[in-house]
Amino acid sequence: MEDALTIAGSGTIDTLAPCEAVTVTTGARLHFGFLDPSGRGPRPFGSFGLALDRPRTRLVLTRGSSLTVEGPERNRAEAYLARVMATSGRAGTYHLNIEEAIPPHSGLGSGTQLALAVGAAFARLEGLPLDPGAIAAAADRGKRSGIGIGTFAQGGVVLDGGPGKDRLPPMLAQLPFPPQWRVLLIFDASSNGMHGASEDAAFASLPEFPPSETAELRRRVVLGALPALAEDDFESFSAAIGAMQASMGAYYARAQGGAYVSPRVATALAWLATLRLTGLGQSSWGPTGFAFIASQDEGRALLKEARARADLAGLDFHLAQGRNEGAKIETR
User: Residues 134-161: pLDDT tens digits?
Assistant: First the structure.
């Protein structure tokens, strides 16, 4: 393969000579919460989140004699490819092989990462100058949160400003996640987070979020979490995320049946809280839970203990790292 191209900066995929095959690899993202979770304030939503190295989506796009798509999430992937083709005005036949896919409806941004990976592969294969924002718009992604777009383009910890009128959310800040920190991920395969029509209905049913609480969330993120990241202050960052998660859980409890969608994930998070971990919660609508760990050694020990606990049977645990670069694109 040629040297890998990592999307960085604005995430623009410059016009390049067409190639025969493109491989795109991108990771999941954690969504810590919204600054205005009701979406009814003067600047609605506004998201804060982190790129992860796992789970990931990896796919290969080549030219073919007919349009074929195989692998997990193939129906969604085919729909995204059709939308990007229609937007670009290019028609062709391709073979799309999805080797890995982030679990759908798990709160980890699977749909946006799949859409962007498909669109980026198509753009690179055809030598088109499409950036992740244009791909997201074509695939109808990123209407509330721009975190998935930002993490695909740049990686790291990303803060967006919420969507404007007919505009995707602008990226306001991006900082690297300290390489020594780890994230314990908690999966419940028996549960799904809200999505689609049920998600829209949930947002419509919730009351307006108090402006004073939005101001407090802004303070915690801008004056708490972001400076803590810049200074490698694990305790302060964890406390800021924990406070944001407590606010999200209280606000969305009526829509999702409690602070967390999965009672089993809630049990795991309650146990982690007894260990004095404060940076924990549920990503987006869940059910995936997370907890920040200060080091690899601590993370491995906690992972071993979590997997051995009888009261957490049925859950799946993995140790992840932050991903401080954008999606990886390889060609041949």
Answer: 999 999 999 899 999 999 999 999 999 9
- Domains of the chain in sequence order: 5-331 (3.30.230.120)
What's the pLDDT tens digit per position in 231-254?
Answer: 999 999 999 999 999 999 999 999
Three-state secondary structure call for residue 242: helix
b/e map of 174-187 (b: 16 or more CB within 10 Å)?
bbbbbeebbbbbbb
Query: Residues 139-142: contacts with CB within 8 Å, 24+ apart?
Result: 139/80, 139/83, 139/84, 139/115, 140/83, 141/111, 141/112, 141/115, 141/116, 142/112, 142/168, 142/169
The phi and psi torsions of 152 (rounded to 5 degrees) equal -65, -40
CA distance 119 to 25: 12
Are the CB atoms for 199 and 143 separated by under 8 Å?
no
Question: Parallel, antiparallel, or unpaired: how do β-strands 45-63 and 328-331 relate?
Answer: unpaired
Across the beta sheet with 289-293, the strand order is 280-282, 289-293, 182-187, 316-320
Average confidence score pLDDT of the chain: 92
d(CA 310, CA 307) in angstroms, rounded, equals 8
From the list 170, 56, 176, 178, the residue with the least C-alpha distance to 108 is: 56
Q: How far apart are CA 149 and CA 116, in angstroms?
A: 8
